[in-house]
Amino acid sequence: MPSVAHVAVLRAVHSLYTYVIPSHLLDEVAIGTWVHVPFGTVLAPGVVFAIDHQHITSLPLKPIDTIDSKRPHLTLDQFQLIDWIRNHYLTTPFQAIQTVVGKQTIRPVEVQNISTESSTPHPASSAQREAIQAILSCEHYQDILLHGVTGSGKTEVYLQVTTQILMRGKSALVLVPEIALTPQISRLFSDRLGQNVVVVHSGLTKKQRSEAWNRIYNGASRVVIGPRSAVFSPILNLGVIIVDECHDGSYKQEQNPRYDALSVAKFRAKHANIPLVLGSATPTIEQLYTHKNNPKFHIKLPTRILNRPMPEVHLLDTRDHSLFPDDAIIGNPLIQAIKIATAKREKAMILVNRRGYAPTVSCQKCKNIVSCSECNLGYTYHSDRKLRCHRCFTIIPLPTGCPSCRKGNIAISGIAIQKVEIELRKYLPESHILRLDRDTGSTPQKISEIMDEFRNSGDVLIGTQMIAKGHDIADVTVVGIVGLDSSLGIPDFRACERTFQLICQVSGRAGRGEKPGEVYLQSAHPNHYAVVSAISNDTETFFNTEIGFRKSLHYPPFTELVNIIISGTNAQLVATFSRKLYQHSQKTLDPLAVTIMPVQPAPVPMIRNHVRWHILYKCIPGQSELIRRILQSAPVPPRGIRLIVDFDPQSIL
Is the pTM of this model over 0.85? Predict the structure, then answer.
């Protein structure tokens, strides 16, 4: 009876395929081995998922052709992670393998004796010492929330914990939410831990990525730092996983498979039986709710290091015209504060939460918004006289007249970063002003160059959310927050939470050195609970207010969400299949465990000419497996219809 291998072929198929293991390969083929197998009329790459020495079948089976020796044998940890990804996120084996492993090839790396010596750590406060001890005393899996105000020294805790983990002969994984933060944190870790540190992110060249991956795979580097995808690094002998800015939505992948790096990190930590450290000044409502009854593992750093004061926050009501003379975008108190700071050779950071020059382009006569024909999103006007869609990246010239009524003239309005930059340069002609957004910081290298220039010679940095978190620049004493009100009106249940987090995070960039900081928040909603709580850094009050809304509306943490997006170019076909899937779900799912929201067009009803409907499921926490089972038996989408399954969505737009 021949031995057979069940192979995940790297094609867009959900099934495993069975092949005979030739006698000359019996000693080489194992679970996790890369092979080439006949698939249709060609040879296709694949990975062995299971081996059966007692397989009985009457069907003729094709043999495995060859073993791919250029790819590293998957470790048991990698294999189990791949299997979890495909089952948890309902992906094909191919998608799961590509997500976890990618297209890396193996190359020997000389592993020298890795020193566990490090430079002298900074003196830790009593709160930091307690946090370090609490983490290092965990001898098994534990989800630990390190909740410290901005500037409280969370990074020093990470550094000292990682140093001790290395001295125990183990490895560490440190996740950051944005590529923009990797240079700063990797510099801190490299200064402390030397060649132990390797950085991985999507901005690396193919050669750099391969070299980094091989250093990890061969054990030449035992501290891995990077954004979301670094969670899949094949680290040997993990001792701790640290997730910095654990509240950040960037940890969620918004393309298939729509994995959450926090969920993946939790799986890896549980599997390795090691502590998972979640660090943030502004944890999510779900993270706070989970840890509020477990104070032993809700570790707080309530004050800044050296007892430095939190910045003083000034609220500028944008409805008060005395503060904004001549229809100025930037309030006079903020302008004066920047002038005083730069005169003392201090620095300022200004957050503007919109790219472009003006977010609204409309007709003065018919009042219609000029929108992208591909996805119906209103265009944003940029200073190069082009209209850009920030969803599908369509670019068109500014029209001379209204595309709708053909009679009115086009008007641009609203606040965006380019307009703020122009106004600042007018008021501060002698200042060295830099801008950081997706237009100027389109690559990790450009982001790093702009941040380095600001640190070394800049006076004012204007930026989008890219500047809001993680950056530690001692000379920044003034922070301005402009145009934030639009985020409160987004039709998403997390809108208020994200506004609160953004205000707290960017405010925390001020006064991190010896000089105290000031924050100037411009808003037309000064009494909104998210704004009031944020300006006093009052997480407790915000949590108590927000949790009441979440409970009454059955949103997380009281439920788990699964959002099904149905999209296609044929609007009628999308609507028909959406209703069919909704009816199937209603008939099959237990209404006591799962609530199905009415099927309807998604809040963002079109992207790139694809019509979008969605079905939102709310289930009792821990019961999302019911939805996985029902989706596996769901009707097959017709040709031209795409089904996107989003577990624990960060956005339901």
Answer: yes
